[in-house]
Amino acid sequence: MAKTIQAIRGMNDILPDQSPAWQYVEGVLREVAAAYTYQEIRMPMLESTDLFKRSIGEVTDIVEKEMYTFDDRNGDSLTLRPEGTASCVRAGNEHGLLYNQIQRLWYMGPMFRHERPQKGRYRQFHQFGVEAFGMEGPDSDAEVILLSARLWQAFGISEQVELQLNSLASNEARARYRDALREFLRAHESELDEDSKRRLDTNVLRVLDSKSPETQAVLANAPKLSEYWDDASREHFEGLCKRLDAAGVKYVLNERLVRGLDYYNRTVFEWVTTELGAQGTVCAGGRYDGLVEQLGGKATPAVGFAMGIERLVLLLASQNKIPAHNAVDVYAIALTEAAELNAPAVAEKLRSQSQGLKVQLHCGQQNMKKKLARADKSGAEFALIIRDNDFELKHLRDREQEDVIASSLDAVVAHLTQNS
Ligand code: HAM
């Protein structure tokens, strides 16, 4: 036998028994985005490598070690998008959507990062993201956070997620804080983990993220970012908190939250859960007022977030919040040879008369026992036996109920409607 070929590690098939959950989730995401008047944008999955280097930052984990980058046949360096914000800004600039305008956009689709696969962390994963452009006040930060909060409500998992908030303040304030943090950590360099030592020079804020208990112990006495906030950023942050308070959205302040992408300023936030083990961040985002200009556009304030759909689906499954789904409502079987010729036409009429009814027509010649076994296995509520002159409807799930003989398809539909 020929050797079988397998999917790339960390890249998953979404199989037929999983796709109803995905369709449900995608449907709710679309509905909630529409309720906030966000419009869909679809970007290509491949972009120039420079786009991500210039936006996410050269010394981030994503750019340094996680991108799928290759030269195409023309020798151009291309990268499979590791996230959507950079592409969204690129598209906005390219098509003149951003300058002097307000845009509320959302996107959904696969992203690619060469990370070590584990539960909730994959090399191809899917994000739903929203990006709001052209609004600088904390009301737009509040809007995207409320949108995310409404999603948890719609999915019935508000109790399982916690909102963590921080402000990275202005670039100047952050630069001053970076210097102070570096100076403090240098004095404790021998107590830091190796990664953190390396980050002292390259990306010292990321030391705050370190999982090492020794490093965390050092950080307990480190200067705090909030001590370096500029007045305008403080006011912005307080404005956001007041709006969240008024809307009844709970949050915790996390001074160590700095995010792994370089483009953020002011507000950053993450929704985390304890239900998924190590990969507990289901949604993350923040403000990135400098990015549009950094990528060649006119200065435009912006704020947004992205959520990991795999993590969301895992969380919903762990809470039994995925609605039951029946792939087949009626399994139609012909009783006689004559009925068999008529069966496709009958199934067509049934589909036309009952919108949304899922009708599976038995194909192939088998004895009645086998046909009924198939009907049962399909999960259908009913078997419809098409006879020469009438129809028999069998209740497959509720066996107590008596079978129904119907003289016309209208009578079949009437019975199905009564029982649905
Ligand atoms: P991010 O924190 O890199 O932010 O990713 C957002 C979310 O995508 C994460 O919280 C997680 O749920 C999911 N995610 C990330 N990597 C993986 C992975 N390897 N496997 C499964 N899920 C993953 C961004 O991407 C920013 N673009 C968010 C943003 C939008 N900020 C402003 N606008």
Task: Provide an overview of this structure.
With 420 residues, the protein is α+β, with helices and mostly antiparallel strands. It has 2 domains: 243 residues, BirA Bifunctional Protein, domain 2; 90 residues, Anticodon-binding domain (Rossmann fold), CATH 3.40.50. The chain is built from 14 helices and 16 strands. Strands 1-5-6-11-10-9-7-8 form an 8-stranded mixed β-sheet. Strands 13-12-14-15-16 form a 5-stranded mixed β-sheet, sandwiched between helices. A 3-stranded antiparallel β-sheet has the order 2-4-3. The two termini are 48 Å apart. The mean pLDDT is 96. The site of histidyl-adenosine monophosphate has 27 residues, from strand 6, strand 10, strand 11 and helix 11.
List key phrases describing it:
Rossmann fold; five-stranded mixed sheet; 14 helices; 16 strands; binds histidyl-adenosine monophosphate; BirA Bifunctional Protein, domain 2; eight-stranded mixed sheet; elongated; 420 residues; aminoacyl-trna synthetase; alpha+beta; His-tRNA-ligase
